[in-house]
Batch of 3 targets.
Target 1
Amino acid sequence: MEIDASTGQTRIAIVTAERLYPCLTAHLAGIGGRLKSVPEDFVVEEIPAFALTGQGSHLYLLVEKRDLSHEQMLRHIAKSLRIPRGDVGTAGMKDRRAVTRQFVSVPAACEPLLPSLETDGLRVLSATRHPTKLKTGKLKGNRFSILLRDAPENAAELAKPIGERLLAVGFPNYFGSQRFGIDDETLSLGLRLLRGETQPRDLPGARRKFLLRLSLSSVQSWLFNRCLAERIEAGDAARIIPGDVLQVCASGGLFVSEEPGIDQQRLDAGEVAVTGPMFGPKMKLPLGEPFQREQAVLQQLQLSLDAFARFPKLTSGTRRPYLVRPESLMITEEADGLHFEFALPAGAYATELLREFVKA
């Protein structure tokens, strides 16, 4: 950490680049290659968490966007339909440099204006009514179809043992570097807010709610990444330590491991997952060594658990699995490169899975 002499505020001296987070398969050679040469190389499709009823006061639009950021999409939809941006509901943010298909909810009264949404970067594929607005996180997961270009001739051979390892134990569930903003500006803002160096009233009124949520979440994400990185560096990412908080994969329920021998068998079978911290007052705390490790990472940013109680609605706290197993992972050779197909649960980053293969 450094202190800015002109402002007296803490300035971050932390590296958040993805390439500096350790890979789980560092002992296996990477294949290199290029991602997202064109948007069509990275195709994402949402897996909805519930079925639409066909009736109600909200209209669920299945939209396809190309090379368009989440914020650009929201602004365009709100402007075209003449509604406040807050009336537009989405389950999650999608990559910009990609072709993505996702659901967006708007008031049903907007239906006559739907033709105005069509642009080169956005298409409406379907429109279905539903009683409630789409909320953040109401998503089962995402399916991916990704082409890795300029891979070497033996790419498929190199990829095979990596894929087998990730299917057996999972890949590091890091948050992507886009979470922290250009030059870590989003992370820096979140830290200043948590330390009281910046107040919510100091943020632009029109974007205050968005910036608060994004920047505070950025700090939680960085802390999770650092805890996960230290587990991998210690060789403990796929090993249960007494006191770990585990998540039951089928139900999402959390419990503290008191019988690591039995729980390790369940972990190896994919029944439970070891979780890391998304710090906040409602987060379930681990015990013993895991607790001490998490507290040490928290102190790296000169923070305490009490700091997150300043924003109880935005940083209530939760747990996040350290490792995630991809579903239906298929890797095939094509003329233009290596093609990956797989599905991930909501919140997991496809780029972090691919980083285990690329290692560049």
Target 2
Amino acid sequence: MHPFAIVGRIIAPPLAAARRLLTRWRLAALLLAALALTGCSVLRLAYSQAPAALYWWVDGYVDLNDAQSAALRQDIDRFAAWHRQDELPAYIGLLGTWQAMAPQNTTGAQSCAQYGALRAAVVRLADQGAEPLARVALQLSPAQLQHLERHHAKRNREFEKDFLRGTPTQRLQRRVDKAVDRYEMLYGRLSPEQVAQVRQGLRDAPFDAERLLAERRARQDELLRLIRQLQAAQGGPLATGAAVPAPAVAALRDWFVRGLPQADDPGAPWIAHGCAEYAALHNRTSAAQRERAVQVLKGYEADLRALAAPA
């Protein structure tokens, strides 16, 4: 697993990106997902639209009322200003590191080290975003919590459609198609031998969709219980304009971070497997494919430098 592209999922929109990292069953592919942004101008546009996208993402989950909407928009604006000033320089540094790594062979351990750097960035997002998201969570009405439950159920049905329907061969092919698309956005077209290697790596991966769906549902249930418990402890939903209790912020931040496995987590063997499989594929890329990767990464670095520059 290599970090070349996960930065895009952190960039726009930041918290939605962090949430996607919890989809742990395909981390090797996830690390290349940012390359869905095919040009520098697209990334800049996406970043500029991130606050609005983040607002609509949250609203889609809980159906905000007017007062909640106004407060959340203010929180998002503050979060976006922090992210541009404090986080973009860190991503620029990572992109420089990855450009230096791209022409060289790599190892699973090196790739997992970069995964660790990106996980730390996601934790920083959680630290910064915990209070505004706790504010939203504690203000939710019973009807809004039911809306959240329905949205969870909808997303779970989508997971089932993608990973539990069809024959084992069909399921594997869907995973291969997505992984190849993402790799090719970094390296250009893969050879038949490289595609075969991706297929074999995914076939051998410690991937259990049923177990992951069960874990997903358990975390969703835990979140709903936690919100209800926090609200009960304060006598009901948080009033508009009221301060968010620090223990609630800490509890919700802890719930989020516990969903981010470490690279050496024995309960998440797919991470080490993904690191090794990415390294194996990268080491079979041609000089031209590696040069293309460098140019793609340079484009992202230039983009982030423009975004981070003072207005």
Target 3
Amino acid sequence: MVFSSSLFLLYFFPAFLIVYFLIRGTKWKNLWILLTSILFYAWGAPDFIFIVVGSIIADFYLVQVMDKTGIKRHKRILMALSVLLNIGLLAYFKYSNFFIENINALLEAMGMTALHWTQVALPIGISFFSFQKLTYSVDVYRKVHSPLKRVTDYAMYILMFPQLIAGPIVRFNEIADQIEDRRINETATNRLTGFFRFILGLAKKVLIANVLGEQVDIIFAMDSSGLTMGLSWIGIIAYAFQIYFDFSGYSDMAIGIGRMIGFDFPENFNNPYISQNISEFWRRWHITLGKFMKDYLYIPLGGNRVPKSKMFLNLWVVFLISGLWHGAAWTFVIWGAFHGLFLVLDRLFLLRFYKKIGKIPSIILTFIITMVGWALFRAETLPFAWDYIGTMFSFNFTPSGIFFEQKFWTILVIAAFFSLWAAIPGIESWQNRLFSKNQSMRTVLIMVAFSVLFFIFSLAAITSSGFNPFIYFRF
């Protein structure tokens, strides 16, 4: 079940909200969220729900024992067991196929017999809920926050359907108090502005990302020999906007639903394509992943406190892991290494270079670097990725002979405008005010009017098209 489906929009979500608003007491509201979240997950992955719930129960009691023990050595052992449980499950389900495939390729190259292996299916959203489980264990271990008292509350935190499938990654300490009491956030204004945020995300996903995605799939399905320079640039520009409006749209929907039921989920995007360097890009793109990697991996490795050579190595390693986190394929590993390289180059000399050339040239150059990375990210194989990137810079101006509908060009222009308009002074501060909690009733009513209009357009688009993928579901 996806947010941008008739089943969710017309049946599941309205039924969930009606019952939720009728229930009194945080304890019972949490139970309702948990039950509906289990149904939501089981709808798409019934075979894995028992594994997920089992790991949640095991982790909860492991952390409970860890928090109560007064012996530091025992705490460290229990903490290590919790990390091993979560990383172990993630490694087995997400990377075992990748590992065996590469072992078999090596064995066959050496003339040896390949290993027999049954392909392991990937549980939906495992990358996101595994990281959230880790934040719970680490935050309790570090005494950032005390553990939850009820296993049902912990299960609700991990399985909460708004952010279960594709984030944002919500750290335990960010919403721990809201899990136990969020009455202060359960206001009419919050619910209405949350509804607006949800519909805004839905429109971004359905009216923009889906339209671009159809053409992107066609271009990336072509044989590399049939690509031209112009076609390759159209494909990668469209993909850059598709993945942004798809993923940020999902984050908007998750944040909106969270606000409607009293939770403050962290922001996950902040106009990433106006970044003037790759370092800034990662402060604006998938913000919760970047912060997670920084606080739970980069800083424990030494952060900025180590010699520069070690710091650069740590930075690069973190982004190699970030690339692998996105997918079990060499294209993702190289994509992570690519971004890690530019983060190091930023610190060595690029930041000074960008400062000299000015804002607009820096934005353009950073966007081009980002798109080269997206070619690696989107390609199914490394050979195709190299061919695609080579075609982008081939300076072969032969016409492709492929014509796109006016709808595609219109949406591409709209996507470009709303991806880059925050470069205009004052737009970012206006966006921050728009998404804040302190809204006048007049503003709220205008937002509701736009929500109804966007909902009608989005529902019409959903019912008239069979193309409705969510890019980050495979992560």
